[in-house]
Amino acid sequence: MTKLQIIFITVLTFCFTTAQVLGQTQLSGLVIDEKGEALIGANVSLEGTYDGTSTDVNGRFQFTTQETKEVTLLVTYISFITYRQKIQPKGQAMTFTIKLREEANELNTVVITAGAFEASDEKRVVVLNSVDIATTAGGAAGDLFGAFQSLPGTQTVGETEGLFVRGGAANETKTLIDGLTVQNPFYSSVPDVPQRGRFSPFLFKGTVFSTGGYSAQYGQALSSVLVLKSQDLADKTETNINLMTVGVGGGHTQRWENTSLSLNASYINLRPAFAVIPQNRNWQKPPENLESSLIFRQKTSKTGMFKVYSTYAQSELAMDYEDISLGNTTNALGLDNDNAYINTTWREALDEHWMIQLGASYSHDHDLILLNGDRIFQQERLQQGRVVLQRTIGENSGISFGGEVQKFNFDEGINDLFRGLEENYVAAFVETELFFTRKLAGRVGVRWENSEMIQQQNIAPRVSLAYKTGKYSQVSTAYGLFYQTPQRDDLMQAQLNQTASNLQFEQAAHYLVNYQWMIPGKRTFRVEAYYKQYDNLVKNFTTQTMPELNNQGYGFARGIELFWRDKSTLKNVDYWISYSFLDTQRDFQNFPTLATPGFAAKHTVSAVYKQYFSAINSFVGFTYTFNSGRPYFNPNNETFHGDQTPAFHNLSLTYTYLTSVFNHSTIVFASVNNLLGVQNVFGYRYSADGRQRQPVGQAVDRNVFVGMFITIGKK
């Protein structure tokens, strides 16, 4: 290289370096909180660039940038609201003093918890998420509703399906998907054979299980609501293959940039399993089921989402059913069911303060029952629409208002005789959540409902209040009135008597107080006391001509519940324990006096234990459930419901093994329900003369399930 070349390169390098220095802007400053304290380790950067740094031990920062166009200075810090400021670098030093405001979150802001267990895969405050539900051992491992029976406030009623909450019947709990009522959340059943829920827990990103004092957004439930929030866009494209001892299933999910589509199908046939596992029912045709589903998601904008969820299922079964109260005869019983359900919702942010949610659903359930040669059919149809508008006020407060309409049709018949009813229901609500301070919050709402069939209206106020007592603890209280239209069979009888307009809404008043201590992701302790007053319950009695109905029934339920969960004390161990004390009586339906209903146990205990063994890549879980004896009717006892069943015991096991098959993620899952084979009894039936009785027991004393679930395209 010549001397001239060296001089030329040196000058060129100097000019380039000088241009870089002259084009740079130095940014420096101080980041503090609202009290003026320095924030150490805050991230300071220019949005959309690689320029930035973190604050030092004195809360100060300094860095340079070559940007010359307008950019956004971004400051982030855990538990504080993100700071944004538009700036225009011009090559001159710029100095800032930035004050961050503390963000409202689970640790520093009160949340209303009275009566509600919330579970979400989006939020840090989690009680049960979808994985918890799927892996909880019990009466129906992987069953959405079965898992919630391990929480306080619920009862184990082994002869039928449903969520029985705080002394309420199963029909007093409603299930909703994205705010829309599900008319038939369980598969159709026959006597003394409880059925599973229709929905997989993995369809939902969050659940709110309210055992009382729930939001004014929902109604038609005297006791409880289970609010299921469906997933948004699928994470990725994948294919699933399910091989089980009870059948096969599979599906494919396709993910595009703003769209996802899932198609799934399953075939279940219990005959092979029943041939191996002894049954306590005389099955002529074990349950057989064919089901398909479609899940469509479309992101319509940055804040908009359109969803469609649709299922169709066919099932059939046949059995010989013995009922001593019907004359000690064997009844040939068959059931064919068709069920279709579609749920469509759309949500969109209208601006930075307003959000709109629209929803519509349709369900159709048809049962054909063959009983000793007679053809009995029952058909239900529910159409509904819902709209909700929400407006944020300030940092955390907001107001919601909206309404819904439902059209319900029911038809039934035997052979050539038919009858039916139609109910049109309209409701509207308004509710506001107010944060007076970070420690004190309230929710006030009111709901209006109108029933066309009984020609009645109601207004239901709801109030909740919560106060944060410490970093991890708070107290909450709630009050509300809750109404429910009389049940389908009561409406049918009233229509036949031409007295439907004489009926009123059934009513329950809830009073709750709750204390909760929670370290998110580690430990949770909560205790809740409640009182429910029932009024206007439907009573039915027989006169010399026909059954009569009125609203002279009443009752109460009171109790206390405890819940403890620990995910951090023992390595790779997660366990929770719940206890419920229930004192309840009611005079309703055909009860001759005030008495404890047959579905209510005074003491209920659930203990769930799960442990991960890394050496064998496996999870093992146990669930133990205890219920004290439940009352039942003995015609030989002068005291109505004066006898009690033996206590209920169930120890169940799950085992989950994570592996791969041909390099595809695979889960091997096995469960044993009622591991010890305890022969639980749920009640007794008596002959007409009261001299003989028949125990109502389990459909199976011990049940075993094994499945392999392969996911292609997901590691």
* CATH superfamily grouping of the largest domain: TonB-dependent receptor, beta-barrel domain
Beta-strand portion reads: over 45%
Q: Outline, from the CA principal axes?
A: globular
**Could you tell me the radius of gyration in angstroms?**
30 Å
CATH architecture verdict of the largest domain: Beta Barrel
Low-confidence residue ranges: 3-22, 118-126
Number of discrete helical segments: 5
Number of discrete domains:
2
Roughly how many Å apart are the termini? 56 Å
Number of strands: 40
Name the helicity range: under 10%
Characterize the biggest β-sheet.
22 strands, antiparallel, barrel
- The CATH topology of the largest domain turns out to be Maltoporin, Chain A
User: What class, by secondary structure content?
Assistant: mainly beta
CATH class of the largest domain, named Mainly Beta
- Average of pLDDT: 87
Considering the chains and any ligands shown, give keywords for the structure:
715 residues; mainly beta; Immunoglobulin-like; Maltoporin, Chain A; 2 domains; 22-stranded antiparallel β-barrel; 5 helices; 7% helix; disordered N terminus
Could you give a quick summary of the protein structure above?
The protein is mainly β. Helix content is 7%, strand content 57%.
